[in-house]
């Protein structure tokens, strides 16, 4: 039997796939807590480092959590245990669970977050939506379906491809419009509406679409891409399987990988009007 792998070795494999240099300047990616020299036999992959996923890691006996979202995105001066994030840091340390976060570096990498979203939907990726200078990495992806399909059918395709959430999947556009070319951006993507329009795609799939930017986009031109709105968590969850495959391939038979299926989307109650 081979010697146990160290957490630092798993982090190195992840950073080869998702180079920290690709992260945005405002981002906080990398190792958050734990001892890089400790051995690791089990890793949990998730979107959000929150109480539910820390619970899951402890239950699984995982020594490392790999999360997409940073726990400490903004500068902090302390992590006291009587604060929400401080309590998580203290619990992970007590339980021997390390935390590593790959955020906008995973968004921009090739393949990255949006490639995983595109693959889940059934798109063949042709390039980035907002490319970096290399023309390969960058935010978002552009892809195409095997055959055109009506927008209403496409919206259902997206809903069927991703984990269920209480808010569900929403579409904005002509239900009969043929959809063949599609832009996707995991996470909040309405700042890329202009790029999606310039790309000439038929639809744009992203999360956290806001009322005014979406409305102004659709009113701007009859050729503007139809919009498919997701919850933030659902749009990025497919990346967990992609990242877990990186570790599974690098440490075959030596490190177990688990993808969290616990929905950490904050929207958990839905109500529809029952009276006229």
Automatic annotation (TrEMBL):
Keywords of this entry: Metal-binding
Gene3D superfamilies tied to this protein: NIF3 (NGG1p interacting factor 3)-like
InterPro entries tied to this protein: DUF34/NIF3, DUF34/NIF3_sf
Family, per entry: Belongs to the GTP cyclohydrolase I type 2/NIF3 family.
Subunit structure, interactors included: Homohexamer.
The protein's name: GTP cyclohydrolase 1 type 2 homolog
